[in-house]
Design a protein that fits this description.
The protein has 339 residues and is of the alpha+beta class. The protein folds into three domains: 20-91; 96-201, no CATH class; 225-338, no CATH class. It is 29% helix and 33% strand. The chain is built from nine helices and 22 strands. The protein has helices at residues 2-17, 25-36, 93-103, 132-146, 191-204, 214-221, 255-264, 319-326, 333-338; strands spanning 41-43, 48-50, 59-66, 71-81, 84-91, 111-117, 120-129, 155-161, 167-168, 171-172, 178-182, 227-232, 237-245, 253-254, 270-272, 275-279, 285-289, 293-294, 297-302, 305-308, 316-317, 330-332. Strands 15, 16, 17, 18, 19 and 20 form a six-stranded antiparallel β-sheet that branches. Strands 1, 2, 3, 4 and 5 form a five-stranded antiparallel β-sheet that branches. The chain has a four-stranded mixed β-sheet with strand order 6-7-8-11. Strand 7, helix 4 (132-146) and strand 8 (155-161) form a beta-alpha-beta unit. Mean pLDDT is 91; it is low at 1-17.
Length: 339
């Protein structure tokens, strides 16, 4: 019994103390050699104590100066993990190198995003695009920059799609952002972002969906699980639309997509996909608009009365809601496979 009590006390002490290691200057020197692959550098004599709002632990920031004058940092970061206090090392050398590379090269559409946390630098190359052509121009400009990347710096990039409904309050719909990490021009790959941009355009029925050919659209939707189909009353089977999809994030059927569904189902919506009025079979009059936002929440009008969509970033409906309002049965491809 006493032995068991001693074991329990030791276990409790281990949990309270955590799995931490005290790093000294020599440890930091070894870490830099192994992780950065350099040998000509100096480490500060003592670290600087750092405190953040995220946790109550004291972290330690070491300053490293290379022989070429470059200065970066190594952070001894304490945090809670796996039910015990632990610490780990991280350095910002690659982010510092990216900042230098960006300063030494010319660019038109690209810009450098940078932030600092506990003395550590975080940098990223960004670019904003509003159409397919701009997305490809951003990729080309990044490739030109990487062609001058003589030190082989890891470049983190994010091409942000600035579509009309990107921001709703503090929430951002980043479905078509193209991002990655590259060292050489051939590492830049925006194919996934290009496809996601098409899917976003189809979701909200943006005019930019015309930037893609019918063949490109068909290829993108061939095995796409969120492609939409309607129930054909005569055959009793679901038939896929040519270019209608639900939200890639699973939010459902957008206001604009519902407009097309109702139009093809024989309803007569008055207006545009972005703002329209339509009568349901039971005589209820609905009005939908992307302009109907109050306190960062979407709503629609049901016989002139405001009806909240349920979530502050929702401008979509679940397929059951569409069937409830209009009697139109719509399903996504993955839902049909589950039946």
């Amino acid at each position: 019994m006493k032995k068991m009590i001693r074991i329990m006390c030791i276990l409790c002490l281990l949990v309270l103390c955590g799995c931490t290691k005290d790093y000294d200057r020599n440890d930091i020197r070894d870490y830099v050699k192994d992780s950065c692959g350099i040998s000509d550098f100096k480490v500060s004599s003592e670290p600087q104590e750092m405190h953040s709002d995220e946790d109550e632990y004291t972290d330690y920031l070491w300053t490293v100066t290379e022989g070429n004058g470059r200065v970066f940092h190594v952070l001894d970061n304490y945090h809670w993990g796996m039910e015990a206090l632990t610490n780990s090392l991280a350095c910002d050398r690659e982010y510092v190198m990216l900042k230098e590379l960006f300063a030494d090269t010319s660019h038109d559409m690209l810009y450098l995003y940078e932030e600092e946390w506990e003395g550590m630098l975080n940098t990223q190359i960004r670019g904003d695009y509003s159409n397919r052509r701009q997305l490809h121009l951003l990729a080309d400009e990044l490739k030109e920059l990487l062609a001058q990347n003589r030190e082989g710096t890891g470049v983190f990039y994010d091409f942000r799609c600035m579509h009309p409904y990107r921001s709703i309050g503090d929430y951002e719909i980043k479905d078509a952002d193209a991002y990655g990490r590259a060292r050489q021009p051939q590492d830049v790959d925006i194919s996934e972002g290009d496809t996601n941009y098409l899917l976003l355009c189809l979701d909200h029925r943006y005019e930019n969906m015309n930037e893609y050919t019918k063949e490109e659209t068909a290829a993108a939707l061939e095995n796409y699980p969120r492609r939409l189909a309607y129930l054909d009353q005569e055959s009793g089977t679901y038939v896929f639309y040519d270019d209608l999809v639900e939200s890639r994030m699973g939010y459902g059927i957008s206001f604009a997509c519902l407009y097309e569904i109702l139009k093809q189902a024989g309803f007569d919506p008055s207006g545009s996909p972005a703002h329209y009025t339509v009568s349901a079979p039971d005589g209820t009059v609905y009005e939908f608009s992307y302009d109907f936002i109050e306190n960062d929440a979407y709503y629609y009008l049901r016989n002139g009365e405001k009806t909240d969509t349920g979530y502050y970033f929702y401008n979509h409906f679940h397929y059951r809601k569409v069937e409830e309002m209009f009697g139109v049965s719509v399903r996504a491809a993955y839902q049909l496979e589950e039946q």
